[in-house]
């Protein structure tokens, strides 16, 4: 089984700890991971803003970087959703039949991390240890584009020492929405502020999601509000084991906090 | 009307509006969810309805001709209206032919879309809304902000004030000592409206459905005011969008199951009125039906987005939309607000002409909640993205490209190859060093202030400082040989 990790452009540049954790976790579960160096971005920022022509070269780069793998694991519901649901449209628009064919071959093999763990590896307990009060925001694209269902919370529930508390109105969008966060900044912030208030109401120490973009948005609001709540990617929690320090928040380079 | 982001900014500052909207949409959302869970095969039902609509739209011309023939055979007069002006002219002509200065109205989205009340007023004809919420909006000299609940943005204290201050000027005044008790308010509206029903000789309605083979128009409503308007006056004019046609009577079954559950969270709507032309000695003795295009054939010409014409105006998408919940309906600048408005308005009007319409497809985070609840399975998020593409394409020939277009092209170029992305990340890491400074520690430093356009982000949100080493660089340094982190 040849498995590749898609680091995603935002994971690559802004949240490398989340991608490193994905690699660490998969290796611990016995998977030999490859990271094709030709990969860049799924093209979602362009597609969702209406620049479909501009996304064509990115789709081309994607398929050439990832073709031939049995599975491509993505620590992002949003990027996985973009590949599975938008690459076909972009390829069709380009009029390049060979590209459309390559997309048909590649995109169904692209899985969000929790889908790969539960459906392909067949594990729910990944042997993680994370003794903290945690709440989980289930990201819109994971929920409604990929239909990952309760896979992420099943994985989290099996983590040793964790105190997983439900998030009120969990299925409501955090308001990030890609360029929506800038084009409609006021509405985006209003939605995010309500999400942040729900997070605070749980008394959790850590907010976990499967998308770096939601983390960046809600984390940015929690940070500005001095909420004292960390944000972490699902992969970082699942990758954590007792021998990596009892606290789990020590290796905090990848988390957003209130220091300034 | 200012474009969405500007209008939203003003609406977000209205705390009372936010509370009213959150309460109302939350209540309807919960009711809807409960009655939908009762049905065994909701998904099958909505797919069946979607198929019916799609097949009808594919042969719309034939079904409309059948409808015209059936209605005419039953004594109705059918008019074809290319646009709003055509449709308004028909209504005004009918009123003038009978010397009528006042008409009562059944709540209708199509007549609001063509601004019938305003056009009639210019010609000295007064149109009186009889739906309770529409009455509140009309008396308050306001605009509707929700498809189903036009006065959703008002609370009952505001409604009491509107009734007390305005009713007397246009008919029977509100009783003295009016309170904000819902039953008292409804009583005042009932007395005010009854006077209108009994004294007005002409009514204007829309239709929820138009059955082609039987020539039957259908209106569903909750208050009984619609039934009064459809039976008491001598003359009835119904303005019907051409997408409202369904081929046969039995097609109504799935729609009359889907609509009330999706819109009001009821198993069945309280009043379903159907009428076919003229029945001698019973009800209106002159019936006109105006079949309205007003951009619908433009939408029909779009192979993918055509599915928006399946819409049965239930407003379920408004009630689940987190954007609508925070900014309200007026922000969309149209009688069709919320997610359906964000796609319907650009489809009916066309994109590339005015900034307010072009902003609508961007008034969504693409969270997908709207598409999930839609009873006729319209892929609203998909159409939003499709229309964004159309907006961008419409401006590709502009003399001076927008800053966004330049940024997107630059980003696409930078992300186009791994080498360019790697270089970009190294530059980002170096720049971030300026922010990072000497602050060391276990927590990640944040950026609190960026220049425009980054200021749109940092006005309310911190941004993590980009890390020293990207994942790509880390992998090259340690990862490929299987080393630990």
From TrEMBL, chain A:
PANTHER family associated with the record: LACTATE UTILIZATION PROTEIN A (PTHR30296:SF0), UNCHARACTERIZED PROTEIN YKGE (PTHR30296)
What's this protein's name?
(Fe-S)-binding protein
- The Cysteine-rich domain is annotated at 3-83, 134-218
Q: What is one Pfam family matched by this protein?
A: CCG
